[in-house]
Every structure is written in structure tokens, then in C-alpha cells.
Amino acid sequence: MADEAPMVVVGLGNPGPRYEGNRHNIGFLVVDELAARVGGRFKAHKAGAEVVEGRLGDQRVVLVKPRSFMNLSGGPVAGAAKFFKAGPDRITVVHDELDLPFGTVRLKLGGGDNGHNGLRSITKSLGTKDYYRVRFGIGRPPGRMDPADFVLRDFSTTERKELAFEVDTCADAVAALVEQGIEAAQNTFHAT
């Protein structure tokens, strides 16, 4: 359908150079890769986010990076969804996941926030948990390190060696979700 709302793909992260290499910013890294694939550059949008419009396969997509801090992501996400007339079934959020080993990618529809304040904010602003999530594993913090400190640290030297490959794989998973649907994407990416 020509008038169908685009798929809105949100990458979660914190704005500014201080946070660029943080584990919490994996969502930004993945949507940056997707923006390169669609040949677009992020531009400021009145929703309080930076956006790129393009196509993945035959699907219209809007890539979104909220300009707010992670814990306040809901407002910009809801604003972009409203502007582009995208219901929750057209929203995909890419985020870091402590409970998955580094580089593991998992896709799902709905669910809880598992202590992730960005997801909590989005769920509250959208009024539903029923949006797609692409979870990128960052692993658990070592020893007794507070998870809140861990997510705001840069990827380790070892992780950085694999990061470009893992971001590329996660972007592939998002593209599969957008183009083929959740079941096909899960069948491909959950097997690895």
C-alpha cells in the first residue's frame, strides 16, 4: 500500500561525544549503519529527534535517534510515531541488553523493560509495550560493578575489534524484521 505508514526504527543512546562509544549507545551505532545503507544523513526533526527517511527493500523506513537522554526517550519516539502516523506495530526499538552475551542479537514483540529506563520511557509515552525490540547483547558487568556504570562505559578493546561486524549483523536483523517480518527474522538470527 502506497499510503501505509513507514516502519519507524529507533536507535537508543545518549546524545553528545561523551557517550559515543558507550555500550548504552549501541542503538545509535546500528541506526547509523542503517542510515549509511539507505544513503541518508540524520537531520533535526521537530519531534525532538534526528531522522533519516529511506527504504529498506520495498519498505519505507524512518530511522530515529532521540536527542534526549536515554531515560527520556519516550517523548521523541512518541512524537516521531505521531508525525509519521506509525502505530506501535510499525515501531522497532534497537537497544542494549545486559542479559545477553556480547554481540548476541534477539528480536521480539512486546515484553517488559527489564530495568531498561529507555524502554520504560517509551512504553509509558506510547501507552503500550507492544512494539518491536531488537536487543543487542552487551553482557553483564564484571564483578560487583553497578550495571548503570557498566552501560555508560565504552566497549572493551576486545569487544571493539568485533564491534563493526556485530553492528553490521544487528543492522541485518533490523532489515530482515522490516522487510520480512518478525518470524522470518527470528528464524534467521536466533539460530546463530
From TrEMBL:
Its EC number is 3.1.1.29. GO terms for molecular function: peptidyl-tRNA hydrolase activity; tRNA binding. Its main location: cytoplasm. It holds the Pfam family Pept_tRNA_hydro. It is found in: Cytoplasm. Keywords: Cytoplasm, Hydrolase, RNA-binding, tRNA-binding. It catalyses: an N-acyl-L-alpha-aminoacyl-tRNA + H2O = an N-acyl-L-amino acid + a tRNA + H(+). The record marks D96 as: Stabilizes the basic form of H active site to accept a proton. Catalyzes the release of premature peptidyl moieties from peptidyl-tRNA molecules trapped in stalled 50S ribosomal subunits, and thus maintains levels of free tRNAs and 50S ribosomes. Hydrolyzes ribosome-free peptidyl-tRNAs (with 1 or more amino acids incorporated), which drop off the ribosome during protein synthesis, or as a result of ribosome stalling. Belongs to the PTH family. Monomer. This is Peptidyl-tRNA hydrolase.
